[in-house]
Write a structure and sequence with these properties.
The structure is a single chain. By secondary structure, this protein is an all-alpha fold. It has a single domain, classed as MetI-like (MetI-like fold), CATH 1.10.3720.10. It has 15 helices and no strands. The longest helix has about 35 residues. The protein is globular, with a radius of gyration of 24 Å. The relative contact order is 0.14.
């Protein structure tokens, strides 16, 4: 077990450092002078120079990166340029919102993918519909799908609010009506990806000898599917869902911006518009950390559940 964890750390740590370098240099370097972007087109050279000196933007990027990593290691992401809050104060209230939407969308997508693709009753009808929905989820961008759902359920039918957020304190009904469209929008891609992974494994397991023996014993096709095929086909899904867990906050950016939801994704968009580099970098670091950690956990779980698998 310790050898397995050590091996994953050996690959995970360099990957993490490399991605943080790309993140920092893309935000602090490729987007231009932070001071001039923050002050706008009418800023004087003196004002830009003063702001560069104040925040250390005039130092070499490598020096800035090393200082930023040192502070990030101690959970010090400085203060927001736009709100003057600490980055933690800006991000922490948004985390529960993003996690709720992301986890609800992932749970809905996983359950739907497993259920629709395991149902053998009228399989000739159910399977093509499940596959078509998967293609739609994978090919249509979130913002296009979200706009379509808003037009249908909010504009035309008037059943659900188009934008905004209602906390639990506003009432269960209000909360659920505000969260439904964002969850459906975000779950579409997850459903499509999980369906493709599950269908491929499901079709292989259905041809195994123990499944044929179960059918020969007279067990109904539906029971064979859920009791024998599904448990032996779900392992790749577990691994893939683990990877998706690390991408929840990154995947919610477009959805939260579209539905005006006060989550981490909406905060990230606001930070981009305000050129709020500390907030942008902190959110990027959180996303990177989540992806790397969940990828390691997914690999470890996959190996532990199936000892025949050995990580290269």
């Amino acid at each position: 077990m310790m050898t397995l964890v050590g091996r994953r750390l050996l690959w995970g740590v360099p990957s993490f450092i490399l991605v943080t370098i790309l993140l920092f240099f893309s935000v602090a370097g490729m987007l231009g002078s932070p001071a001039s972007l923050m002050l706008g087109r009418d800023a004087t050279l003196q004002a830009i120079a003063e702001l560069n000196a104040k925040y250390g933007f005039d130092r070499p990027l490598l020096t800035q990166y090393l200082e930023w990593m040192g502070k990030a290691a101690s959970s010090d992401f400085e203060k927001s340029f736009s709100t003057h809050q600490t980055v933690a104060e800006a991000i922490l209230p948004c985390l529960p919102v993003t996690l709720e939407i992301g986890l609800a969308a992932l749970a809905l997508a996983t359950l739907a993918a497993l259920l629709f693709n395991s149902v053998t009753t009228a399989r000739a009808v159910v399977r093509p519909i499940a596959s078509a929905l998967a293609i739609v989820g994978l090919t249509i961008p979130n913002f296009i799908l979200g706009l379509g759902l808003i037009y249908l359920f909010s504009v035309k039918l008037g059943w659900l609010p188009s934008v905004g957020w209602a906390p639990w304190s506003a009432g269960i009904g209000q909360h659920l009506t505000h969260i439904l469209l964002p969850v459906l929008t975000l779950s579409a891609y997850y459903y499509g990806a999980i369906t493709l992974v599950y269908q491929a494994e499901y079709d292989v397991v259905r041809q195994q000898l123990f499944v044929k023996v179960a059918r020969a014993k007279g067990i109904s096709e539906l029971s064979v599917s859920f009791r024998h095929v599904l448990p032996n086909s779900v392992l790749p899904v577990i691994t893939y869902v683990g990877l998706l867990l690390g991408q929840l906050m990154g995947g919610a950016v477009v959805t939260e911006a579209l539905f005006s939801i006060p989550g981490v994704g909406g905060l990230f968009v606001s930070a981009i518009m305000a050129r709020d580099y500390p907030v942008m970098l902190a959110i990027g670091m959180i996303i990177i950390t989540s992806v790397v950690v969940m990828s390691m956990i997914a690999d470890i779980v996959y190996t532990l559940v199936n000892p025949q698998i050995r990580l290269d």
